[in-house]
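re: ur msg from earlier - yeah i can do the flavin-adenine dinucleotide complex, just paste it... oh wait u already did. ok heres what im feeding in:
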Amino acid sequence: MRPDYEVIVVGAGPAGCAAANYLARRGVDVALLEKAQVPGQRNVTGGVLYTDYLPGYSFEDAFPGFREEAPLERRIVSHEVVVLSEPRREDGKVSYTAGVISEDSFLSRLGVSGFSEGGREAYSVLRAKLDRWMAAKVLESGGAVVTYTSVSDLYMEDGRVRGVVTGSETVTCNLVIDASGVTSKLVERAGLRGPLTPEQTYHGVKHVFKLSPEKIEERLNLKQGEGRAIFYLGSVMKGVSGGGFLYTNKDTLSIGIVVSLDSFLEQSFEQVGEVAKPLDILEEIERHPAVAPLLEGAELAEYSAHNIPKGYKTMLKRPYTHGFLATGDSLGAFVKIGGLIDGMRRAVATGIMAAETYLRAAEKGDFSAGALSRYEELLGPIYRDVRRSGLNSLLTEGKIAYRLAPKLLTAIAGKRFEANPPQSAGTDSGDSIKKIQNLTGLLDYDEDKEYSHIKVDLEKASSQALKLWVPACPVNCYTLVLEKGVYASFRDLYLYNLRQLTSRGLDEGRARREALAETLRDIARARLNFDHVACVACGTCGVIGPSDIVLFDHERDGHGVRYRYG
Ligand SMILES: Cc1cc2nc3c(=O)[nH]c(=O)nc-3n(C[C@H](O)[C@H](O)[C@H](O)COP(=O)(O)OP(=O)(O)OC[C@H]3O[C@@H](n4cnc5c(N)ncnc54)[C@H](O)[C@@H]3O)c2cc1C
Ligand code: SF4
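and the outut:
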């Protein structure tokens, strides 16, 4: 029987739009299915987009005319790493340091910063605009773009993938190209890998601030239309493996962090009084005197969170099965080398490679695993990049890089700032709750009050000694409920306990020790509460799992957050 489409592509991010446009331009009957109402509404990137890549597999190859027509924000003319210290208190004064590793520095020439990987051309982008543009190109090329459609499963016949299941129907095809990103369930259903773990995942949170183009150019020393990419490292990260970024857009600044999820979880527990939520690390960067003047007077427009797969730990060894290919983040084709966060151009390259694999298989009408195995050969250069990023991670993601080296650098070459003591975050028990309520208040949701796409076994979850979903959830869907209050971070609970003990007259050292012990007991005995309404579908709680306690699945068609910047 004739299938409904020749190819179904799931997910209208860079990988999916590239695959669908490449096929549609060659006359293939292709449907691009996207869970958001408008492509891009569900997506977040840093984001600097590097246009150069393997000849034949770049943005320009997927979307001819890309440089002239795509909604690119600013051309990035300089990259630098800025090493930021935490505040140091001495003689009642607070000081900070910051040191810069520029593109032409010795360390960059050694390849440590990763800048040499970027190629000749880079642009800042915002995904709400970029993905909408790419999906419109698919339509122009004759492809079908079906939004408001969440794919819930693969449709199988005789052990072969023959299509997809959406909320309302089964749609058949010769080939499914999975481009549904880091939260892909389809690669699991296809039997290509199990659920991601915290060790395999980076977690990112981001703010977008509105600022006039003139102010952006004046503060960052740029000519009209030019942009800068700054990466932040150092003790400002509070021992969490990862870094920050600040990218200039036309009239906004994107500032965020990307951290190893396992490292964040470890620190949220080991440094209960210091590390509350990833957002707190981002705010620490924003308060640093080397950064704060850039944001002065800027209006916060968006808060977002999203995960990324660690390519070197997750890229599928076998990226295909009968009737199915995985691309982009669902394949694990993500690379981070030094400061360079670099997934979009590889997502596009894998989308084109999947499309080429289909064209070759269609010549013989054979969509079996054997016929699709050519895809693995095409992916050769990406496997090499991912392996290199694994080697680089030994240098740049280890404890030496994140703790010792930045301390040395700022001590030797840092510029010293004296400043007023920063507002101490987390000084009242409702702090994370209030702070994040203000941020989610900036977001627009198509709420689904009746159906939760995340299943939480609250009895089992409440009986766990360590409820790591609480610090990890960027929007407080998980809270600890105790007779002393409701807490959205371990630190808020610790600070409450500390205040109680101090008010009883205990000396500081003893109060801290006892507050820590009481906090750990409280976390273990607290009841867990879960409310999905503010969920931004980052997938983090599902990664923490385990699946018999927290099971993440996709929102129903079109529901969920609608980012305006992304
Ligand atoms: C904070 C942060 C900073 C980053 N910075 C950079 C950077 O500066 N430069 C860079 O190159 N990369 C960066 N990345 C990585 C980059 O964004 C990703 O590697 C890239 O977006 C992957 O593209 P993709 O098309 O594979 O997946 P995605 O962009 O995630 O697209 C997946 C699409 O599938 C849709 N979808 C998901 N599930 C379903 C379903 N079941 N049914 C239907 N549709 C579905 C989603 O809504 C989405 O549209 C960053 C990522 C983050 C989180
Ligand atoms: S509930 Fe889970 S998926 Fe939703 S925002 Fe929180 S951590 Fe992310």
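cool cool. The two ends are 41 Å apart (CA to CA). ping me if u need the other ligands too
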